[in-house]
């Protein structure tokens, strides 16, 4: 309930707007899922495969990783793990993130947080929920498919996707399928928090340079630049990503500890490859962040119009 209008210096100020809980619309979920599916099916998965290959084979440079991927499947090697794991992850990402982030943002504001603080809180909690709900087992299975030993070299038929999944489940249960999920959660929380914060800082800088007051909408190229800077700079947490890949990797290494936690994996990587090893794959990850930004921002308005025509709902999802 809002109180009566306040009078300041003889001028009646408009009453404070009550906090409203925005409904989760089907159009928002459809938009998020569609954009994520497009992103991962185009350049997203090849960059993901390159990033994961470099993180798992830390002696390889960028060119070495490209050669390794091409050698195991040509062009199709760059799409390993796309079906069904990357598609499952992409299609559920928007739904889980939008729903949980929206709820968390509402409650943060109800406790007095401003828009900036509520947005970061919503993004971090949404990222955490996404990691444990769907992203843990999806990233694990993608990494397994990218890094598993090729039995075809020994004349045997390599196991298929579901056969690989069931083999891990029978041997290690749910824990094996979700291996590395804690590292995924840490990465997602720091990703969304830093992307949001760094993008806002970049937006402020663009406004100052362009002489735009706060509240004036940025153009699409300006939004792309700000979001790309936020996405690219958020790769500072690449060591967590390398730890995640190492925990989920199926590569053969007798020197690696049998049971890896986040801490022991970090120590193992540092001992084997130093600081440089912890940042293997950062270049394709930055490129991935930029491509995700282009898809979500540049194609966002076009997608919103298409979804509105299809569903008759007004799309309110933010880029």
Automatic annotation (TrEMBL):
MF-aspect GO terms: tricarboxylate secondary active transmembrane transporter activity
InterPro entries from the UniProt entry: MCP_dom_sf, MCP_transmembrane, Mito_Cit/Oxoglu_Carrier
Membrane protein topology class: Multi-pass membrane protein
GO CC entries: membrane; mitochondrion
A single GO BP: alpha-ketoglutarate transport
Main location class: membrane
Pfam families: Mito_carr
Family: Belongs to the mitochondrial carrier (TC 2.A.29) family.
Protein name from the UniProt record: Mitochondrial carrier
Biological source species: Pseudovirgaria hyperparasitica
């Amino acid at each position: 309930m809002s109180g009566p209008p306040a009078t300041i210096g003889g001028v009646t100020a408009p009453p404070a707007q009550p906090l409203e809980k925005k409904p989760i619309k089907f159009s928002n979920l459809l938009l998020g899922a569609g954009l994520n599916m497009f992103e991962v099916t185009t350049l997203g998965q090849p960059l993901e495969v390159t990033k994961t290959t470099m993180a798992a084979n830390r002696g390889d440079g960028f060119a070495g990783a490209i050669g390794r991927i091409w050698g195991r499947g040509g062009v199709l090697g760059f799409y390993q793990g796309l079906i069904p794991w990357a598609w499952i992850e992409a299609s559920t990402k928007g739904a889980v993130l939008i729903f949980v982030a929206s709820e968390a943002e509402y409650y943060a504001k109800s406790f007095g947080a401003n828009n900036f603080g509520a947005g970061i809180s919503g993004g971090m909690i949404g990222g955490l929920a996404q990691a444990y709900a769907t992203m843990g087992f999806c990233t694990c299975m993608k990494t397994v498919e990218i890094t598993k030993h090729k039995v075809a070299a020994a004349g045997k038929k390599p196991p298929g996707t579901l056969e690989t999944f069931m083999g891990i489940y029978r041997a290690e249960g749910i824990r094996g399928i979700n291996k590395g999920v804690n590292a995924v959660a840490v990465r997602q929380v720091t990703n969304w928090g830093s992307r949001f914060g760094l993008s806002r800082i970049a937006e402020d800088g663009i406004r100052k340079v362009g002489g735009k007051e706060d509240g004036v909408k940025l153009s699409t190229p300006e939004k792309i630049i700000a979001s790309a800077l936020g996405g690219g700079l958020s790769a500072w947490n690449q060591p967590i990503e390398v730890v995640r890949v190492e925990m989920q990797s199926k590569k053969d290494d007798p020197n690696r500890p049998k049971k890896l936690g986040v801490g022991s994996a970090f120590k193992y990587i540092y001992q084997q490859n130093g600081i440089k090893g912890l940042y293997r794959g950062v270049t394709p990850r930055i490129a991935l962040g930029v491509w995700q930004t282009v898809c979500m921002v540049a194609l966002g308005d076009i997608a919103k119009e298409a979804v509105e025509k299809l569903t008759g709902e007004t799309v309110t999802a933010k880029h």
